[in-house]
Amino acid sequence: xxxxxxxxxIVSPWDAHNQQLVSHVHPPDWVNPEPASRYNxxxxxxxxxxxxxxxxxxxxxxxxxxxxxxxxxxxxLNVGCVPxxxxxxxxxxxxxVRDAGEFGVHVPDGVKVDFSQAMQRMRRLRASIAPNDSVxxxxxMGIDVFMGAGRFIDxxxxxxxxxxxxxKKAVIATxxxxxxxxxxxxxxxAYLTNETLFSLTELPGRMAVIGAGPIGCEMAQAFARLGSExxxxxxxxxxxPKEDRDAAGIVLESMLADGxxxxxxxxxxxxxxxxxxxxxxxxxxxxxxYDEVVDQLLVAAGRAPNVENLxxxxxxxxxxxxxxxxxxxxxxxxxxxxxxxxxxxxYQFTHAADFMARIVIRNALFFGRxxxxxxxxxxxxxxEPEIAHVGLYEKQAQGQGIEVDTFTRKLREVDRSxxxxxxxxxxxxxxxxxxxxxxxxxxxxxxxxxxxSELTLAMTHGLGLKHIANTIHPYPTQAxxxxxxxxxxxxxxxxxxxxxxxxxxxxxxR
Length: 510
Fold this sequence. Notes:
This protein is an alpha/beta fold. It has helices at residues 7-10, 16-25, 48-59, 74-78, 81-98, 115-129, 135-140, 194-197, 214-226, 245-257, 350-365, 394-399, 415-420, 448-460, 465-469, 480-492, 496-509, and strands at residues 39-44, 64-68, 144-147, 150-154, 157-160, 163-172, 176-178, 206-210, 229-233, 261-263, 267-273, 279-285, 288-294, 296-299, 303-305, 319-320, 323-324, 337-339, 378-381, 386-391, 404-410, 426-432, 438-445. It has three domains: 11-77 and 131-178 and 304-366, FAD/NAD(P)-binding domain, CATH 3.50.50; 186-301, FAD/NAD(P)-binding domain; 385-492, FAD/NAD-linked reductase, C-terminal dimerisation domain (Enolase-like, domain 1, 2-Layer Sandwich), CATH 3.30.390.30.
């Protein structure tokens, strides 16, 4: 995370939309309030976890201070979920025009992408969402908002911009930042991360992406669809190494069809700056040497927690290079200080940070004993098609000694998917062997992120596949595939003995 800087030096380009953004999330004329004598809760970091903690606590009558050294809204609003999904939407529009011919819709002049306009749209929409996370909104809630770098000076006090804030409880919600892996020559070239990618105003003719995790895959596909020639470099085989292999394979097929050149099992990766200011990438993939010159390089291979310069040792808070250490109730080693979000969670998602913050409010202010391990957390990678997951993968279940039965429905067997021309996908559900209790699920579909919520709801509230099978789904929808997985489970209950018995019963009743 950058140090305290003038917002104009960080947010680029400095157009009307970004000026509007900054006016909400780091207003240049903001004057920090006089601190209260003591706060029920001091929150350091105004990303998703910090904002939810502050708003929830203030809504329940607590006196709250919220500290942010950079931009309110954190990564999600400024350099993460919001801008990336706007760029992905533009890329999907381009792909829809490109592929319109299969539906009998012909565009004579083909696809013409105005990248500058697409990015301007992103900045405009981001600015329009910014009031939700603004200094004014949280100040209007009665929260004392302090702009500056917060630092613990002891176990009960935080200092920010020369002022001292005494607290009863505190929350560390400083998040994480993009981290660069050790690559030969990386420090010699100018490269992008998610924190700088969305400042681009010109489409790179050739682009390399290092890392085939969610961010790398999303942005590689988006820029390929917008017109860049994209090289995706990954050290392991394939893409999305944490996902179900069949599911990741389906996404890979789509990405290759979009023109992405995957250089997986990459070895001996080297980078260098060319005489023309471009970037030379040398790598070996599956025994073949590649030597490519690209205009831009995106590094999407790792995150690092923002634990520096927080005075954690002075607060007696234990931390490592992986983040702040917490127990299942999200308490740190100092029982009066909690943590939430990317600073302490293996699940670095906005929605995970949101619900961790809710746990903190209950436990810190109301003597609760809510557990983070009780959360059922789904996630989605917003490629085309999307890939979403919740619960355990089959290998994880086996590793925990849980035997499972797996039921899969391919989208090519689902009427709505056939009609949409989007049949490359699946719904896969794992249940505890011999039962209908769901332990995990993966979905690959154009709207998998929306579809996974039905299975997440079922897991959260102890509903199983037989309950889903008995739930009427509208026809024709892609979500019908989930009900059809339930039907597949029900068919296993019809054992040979039961089938024989019913056949004899029906014969007798004739």
